[in-house]
Design brief:
It is built from eight helices and ten strands. It is an alpha+beta fold and about 350 residues long.
């Protein structure tokens, strides 16, 4: 097998090795990946289209290899966009490697169909000598070829340097943090919104760091974000007077934890908590603070929950409008001391 096609096949297989195995963390992945994206696909395509020795000279093959690689790789990504796999790392790598192996096989088949004298073969010394001849060419035509060759070489070098700089020092995008909650099944539904006091409730909480640096987070779970108060009611006093909570009272979170995440790290864990304060339409808040700044939450999520007594039937579904027949609920508790935490039900 010709040395240039063999080298293309080896590089393609090396990309698979450094992408789909534990070796993906090695530095060699970067230069090999750049070669596969910028040069190798275009080179094997040129080799398949022009198998003869005299079809193209060395500098033309190099230039067209860069140009066609830059054109072919986005087209492969565009095709993957309309497949079930989408534009993801593994499908993209496998597609580029498959294209390279296919074009290398076509190029090999076309070359062996030619005579030994007509076949293109890679001879670095001949390429260098040909490049020197073009640069040293004399006459009007020679000056044109010399100028175009020098411009082409400088363009290729500048493109490679610029690409390496972008890869080594990527520009920082928007800095943000993902904060989300999922149901116990890992989906964005089936949240525990109807619970009994004292029972365990579980949600999955996720934090993803896109801050481009190590970031320290504090996450708290609170119910209504207000202190607990005791209210005396009787069986006839259905209408409740306005009550101002004591904001100076300490707010004790149901759960609190600290997290430290590197850039692009993800923390996702199921959290189990217990709600003790009975009441309907209570706001269960999930607050995320960043770098010890507790003046205001950096991210804020919440669920509306109905917490019923252990001996009481779960309250009716509030529906989309949030209306509730409070009369029936409060008549279930004559002459009892009800302990609330959070917003009081509206006046009736």
């Amino acid at each position: 097998m010709p040395a240039d096609l063999l080298a293309a096949v080896v590089l393609a297989l090396a990309v698979l090795l450094f992408t789909l195995t534990p070796l993906s963390g090695l530095f060699l992945r970067i230069p090999i990946g750049l070669l596969m994206v910028l040069f190798v696909p275009g080179y094997v395509l040129i080799a398949a289209l022009f198998p003869r020795k005299g079809d193209l000279d060395g500098i033309e093959r190099i230039a067209l290899s860069f140009g066609l690689s830059i054109a072919v790789v986005p087209l492969i990504g565009l095709g993957l966009n309309y497949t079930p796999w989408g534009i993801r790392l593994i499908p993209v790598v496998i597609s580029i490697v498959a294209f390279t192996l296919l074009m290398a096989a076509v190029a090999y088949w076309r070359r062996i169909s030619l005579s030994q004298e007509e076949r293109f073969s890679l001879h670095l010394r001949q390429w260098i000598d040909s490049l020197k001849d073009e640069i040293r060419a004399e006459g009007e035509r020679g000056w044109v070829d010399k100028t175009l060759t020098i411009i082409l070489i400088l363009s290729i070098i500048a493109s490679i340097v610029a690409l390496v700089y972008v890869v080594v020092t990527p520009k920082e995008g928007e800095k943000f943090t993902e904060f989300y909650i999922l149901g116990p099944g890992g989906k964005a539904y089936d949240y525990p919104t109807e619970v009994r006091a004292g029972n365990n409730s579980t949600v999955i909480v996720g934090v993803v760091n896109h801050e481009y640096k190590l970031t320290n987070y504090t996450m708290e779970i609170l119910l209504n974000n207000t202190p607990a108060v005791d209210i005396l009611m009787n069986d006839t006093a259905i209408a409740l007077s306005t009550f101002e909570h004591d904001r100076s009272a300490p707010i004790i979170p149901i759960m609190s934890m600290n997290l430290s995440l590197q850039h692009n790290d993800t923390w996702e864990q199921p959290l189990t908590y217990v709600l003790d304060e009975t009441g309907d339409r209570q706001k269960l808040q999930f607050l995320l603070y960043k770098e010890g700044n507790f003046t205001a939450p950096y991210r804020d999520l919440h669920l509306w929950v109905n917490v019923t007594d252990m001996n009481r039937r779960p309250s009716k579904d509030l529906g989309n409008d949030g209306n509730q027949d409070w009369t029936q609920d409060w008549q279930d508790f004559p002459d009892r001391l009800i302990k609330f935490r959070g917003n009081l039900p509206p006046e009736r």
